[in-house]
């Protein structure tokens, strides 16, 4: 008997089906067949395709956030934290290109936008990040600015390159590119 929980099987299957067929063309039955579960199991966990997409997006986003925010824990300086987040961002995309494609595809298509699970995943990560930023601003290490502006200045360049990186079978971001992104992110918010 397979010990993998049904919910996890469904999320993994949905990721494969959505990437292969696109959200619009994918059906719940395709996901059910890929997961090898019954209709009852599928609809018990995810009554609609939109709720399944939201759960998949949030599940993937939580993993991404966990890797991304590691440099903001402990006593690291603002500079090492900002650069470390960009380094972790790039590393996560290199290590998980299919998951990065999935996040990018669902976000761009709007098919996973605004769901409760996604909102909760973002609220957790953004709340922790906002506290860290406030501490570094209070310590004089970073300039004060609205959170949305900080996020755009730090992450927009990497986000704009993610689709290109994740499209490669084995993404490999050149060290000079990663270092330039780290430096640019830091210079945008440094005190």
Describe this structure in words.
It contains nine helices and no strands. The chain has 191 residues and is an all-alpha fold. It has a single domain, classed as Orthogonal Bundle (Tetracycline Repressor, domain 2). The mean pLDDT is 91.
Secondary-structure-derived class: mainly alpha
Shape estimate: elongated
**Roughly what percent helix?**
over 70%
Strand content: under 5%
Number of strands: 0
Overall pLDDT, averaged?
A: 91
Low-confidence stretches: none
Q: Secondary-structure blueprint of this entry?
A:
Elements: H1 6-21, H2 28-35, H3 39-45, H4 49-68, H5 78-95, H6 97-109, H7 116-138, H8 147-166, H9 175-189
Brief write-up:
The protein is 73% helix and 0% strand. The chain has 9 helices and no strands.
Keywords:
191 residues, mainly alpha, Tetracycline Repressor, domain 2, 9 helices, 73% helix
């Amino acid at each position: 008997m397979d010990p993998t929980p049904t919910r996890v099987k469904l999320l993994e299957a949905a990721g494969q089906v959505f990437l292969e067929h696109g959200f619009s063309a994918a059906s719940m039955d395709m996901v059910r067949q890929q997961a090898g579960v019954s209709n009852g199991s599928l609809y018990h966990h995810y009554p609609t395709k939109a709720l399944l997409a939201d759960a998949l997006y949030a599940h993937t986003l939580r993993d991404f956030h966990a890797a991304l925010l590691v440099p903001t824990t402990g006593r690291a300086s603002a500079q090492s934290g900002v650069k470390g987040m960009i380094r972790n961002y790039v590393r996560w995309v290199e290590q998980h290109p299919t998951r990065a494609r999935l996040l990018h595809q669902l976000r761009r298509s709007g098919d996973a936008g605004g769901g409760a699970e996604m909102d909760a995943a973002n609220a957790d990560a953004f709340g922790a990040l906002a506290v860290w930023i406030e501490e570094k601003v209070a310590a004089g290490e970073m300039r004060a600015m609205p959170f949305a502006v900080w996020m755009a200045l730090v992450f927009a360049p990497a986000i704009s390159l993610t689709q290109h990186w994740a499209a490669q079978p084995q993404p490999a971001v050149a060290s000079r590119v990663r270092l330039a992104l780290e430096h640019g992110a830091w210079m945008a918010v440094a005190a």
